[in-house]
Amino acid sequence: MIEFRQVFKTYGRGVDTLADVNFGIAAGEFVFVSGPSGAGKSTLLKLIAGLDTPSRGTVLVNGQNVGRLPARARPYLRRAIGTILQDAHLLDDRSAFENVLLPLVVTGHSRGAAVNRARVAIERVGLSGKENLRPRELSGGDQQRLAIARAIVNRPSLLIADEPTANLDRDSAHRIAAIFRDFNRSGVTTLLATHDESLIAGYASRVLFVDGGRVVDGGPRTPGLGAASAAPAGGGFAGAPAGAVPGAAPAAPSPRFDGRPQ
Ligand SMILES: Nc1ncnc2c1ncn2[C@@H]1O[C@H](COP(=O)(O)OP(=O)(O)OP(=O)(O)O)[C@@H](O)[C@H]1O
Q1: How far is the CA of 227 from the centre of ligand 1 (A)?
Q2: Looking at the record, which segments are called Disordered (predicted)?
Q3: Which of 99-104's residues contact partners 24+ apart within 8 Å by CB, and which partners?
Q4: Considering only CA atoms, which residue is closest to atom 28 of ligand 1?
């Protein structure tokens, strides 16, 4: 589902934030992206989400070269990927419910269908009863739940979250991680960037370590969670040496992002 081939990312004339990065993630995997502050975890996620482009190399998502997508195709990519960035950008002049509704309105759903979907999303993240509160009236954990509901309301096949448990106490962090695990079990490929070793330790799943511009594939601890059973253990790249170019990831049926028929 995701493949990095000899990817470099350099900001300005500085050092390479990412240098010769190669890995693959199969549909259905649950993967942590770990590494020290400033290592390039956010950069990695932004390249996948099409929010930034590589300086060199190829980033493929569902077989499509994200860096080369024409501007008109980018909205389709964004809809297929639920993205939760560090700054959630929740809209404080709207209720929690309206925050979740908005992506559906933008994608042209009828009001009735949008309301139904938003209700389901709110329920799945455990925010029922808090729909009418403004984001600032929610706890940090509930704000993360809201950001997740907004990210999944368009039913993406891929969910990417950048430090979704930062600033949360341990219990809240683990409850948020459990929400991601549940989405993964329902078939959504999930990538979580985190510093939190205790979070990673609680899940027997694959870890990509980002450090010094390189990405080292920690491989799977055990076969992936939930829907990962649809993919080979570790997404087919188990045991690959760090930096090895993986084989083609098993392709999952997926929408094209360029709006053309499949
Ligand atoms: N838009 C940008 N312009 C210039 N430099 C950038 C930009 N985005 C990231 N960087 C630099 O790239 C490096 C990696 O940043 P990135 O945010 O990807 O790291 P991170 O691992 O996510 O860090 P953290 O865990 O602290 O969020 C840093 O040195 C950062 O200053």
Answers
A1: 31
A2: 239-262
A3: 99/135, 99/146, 99/150, 100/146, 100/149, 100/150, 100/153, 101/153, 102/150, 103/150, 103/153, 103/154, 104/153, 104/154
A4: 38
Architecture of domain 2-92+158-236: 3-Layer(aba) Sandwich (3.40)
Closest ligand 1 atom to residue 86 Cα is: 27
pTM: 0.81
Strands (E), the chain: 2-10, 16-25, 30-34, 56-61, 64-65, 81-84, 158-162, 189-193, 206-211, 214-217
Distance of CA 87 from the midpoint of ligand 1 (Å): 14
Q: What is the pLDDT of residues 87-124, one digit of tens each?
A: 778 999 999 999 999 999 888 888 999 999 999 999 99
Distance 44 CA to ligand 1 centre (A): 10
Q: Which amino acid is at 238?
A: A
Ligand 1 site, residue 194, Cβ cutoff 6 A: no
